[in-house]
Amino acid sequence: MNANKLTRDLFAGVNEPADRQNLTDLEKKHIPVIDAPASVRRCQRFTATVEVGKLLPHNNEYGHSIEFIELYADDLFLAKADLTAVNTCPKVTFCLSLSGPVKELRAYGRCNLHGVWVARSPVAVTD
After folding, report:
1. Half-sphere exposure (Cβ direction) of 26: Cα atoms closer than 13 Å
2. What's residue 88's pLDDT?
């Protein structure tokens, strides 16, 4: 496949792997990994850590880097971390609380060369 076509296709939308059991190296480098509890108490603080490149390290250098990581509870925007191109690890920990029913946390990471990638993690909010 032509490299220009690959880059253009990756920027056409949000990227998710077709087969989570058989990830390519490109997917391993770009899929955010969410470390958060599967169940949280309503309005109680908890942390969620999101790392891009946990499965296979992603270089962060001028010309190729993770620009940001965003976190959502279903469609509700929770937080964003903007990252610099050099001397940063694309890993952030957010302190959160959820007040309503939520089905999943979604993390988005954007690579300047390979587009936006998403990961999902189920979460239940209990009383």
Report:
1. 15
2. 77
The SS3 assignment for 51 reads strand
> Within 10 A of 74 (CB to CB), how many other CB atoms are there?
13
Where would I find the H helices in 1-120? 3-10, 25-30
SS3 5: helix
The segments of the chain whose pLDDT lies below 50 read 1-8
Domain boundaries, the chain: 3-126
The pLDDT assigned to 5 comes to: 43
* Inter-CA distances, 117 with 11, 15, 33, 39, 126, Å: 10, 5, 11, 24, 29
Class for the domain spanning 3-126: mainly beta
In the block, tokens 């250098």 appear at: 61
